[in-house]
Design brief:
By secondary structure, this protein is of the alpha/beta class. The chain is 33% helix and 24% strand. The protein has 2 helices and 6 strands. Helix 1 packs antiparallel against helix 2. It is globular. It starts with a strand and ends in a 6-residue tail after the last strand. The mean pLDDT is 89.
């Protein structure tokens, strides 16, 4: 079961729409899970996502606005499936947080267990 660790501003920290509560964040994560699951041929419940709020984002020059980034933790799904899943995650995060796709960072962290 892929687990997606998202670091991004919470809805209460940004200006998307008029809703600034947990339901917005829950809808964002539900869409993310559904889109990634579909890309992998899994049921919507086959992917889990957790949001960790980005408290402060900075470069060496100072504070900058946060953007969504995600790490998908999961076993090897093959190159094509992994690429489809990452593309789906990037699109869902970009739309959910209202940022261009190129401002979203997504990567796959495969299992490092030995003997697999």
């Amino acid at each position: 079961m892929p687990v997606i660790q998202v670091t991004a501003p919470k809805a209460s920290d940004d200006t998307i729409g008029d809703t600034t509560d947990d339901s917005t964040d829950a809808a964002r994560l539900k869409r993310l899970c559904g889109d990634v699951a579909a890309a992998l041929g899994l049921p919507p419940s086959g992917v889990v996502a957790v949001l960790s709020a980005a408290a402060v984002t900075s470069t060496g020059d100072g504070i900058v606005p946060a953007w969504p980034l995600a790490v998908v933790h999961g076993s090897d799904r093959g190159r094509d499936a992994t690429r489809r899943a990452l593309d789906a995650a990037r699109a869902a995060l970009a739309e959910g947080w209202g940022v261009p796709r190129e401002e979203v960072w997504v990567e796959w962290a495969g299992s490092r267990a030995t003997g697999d």
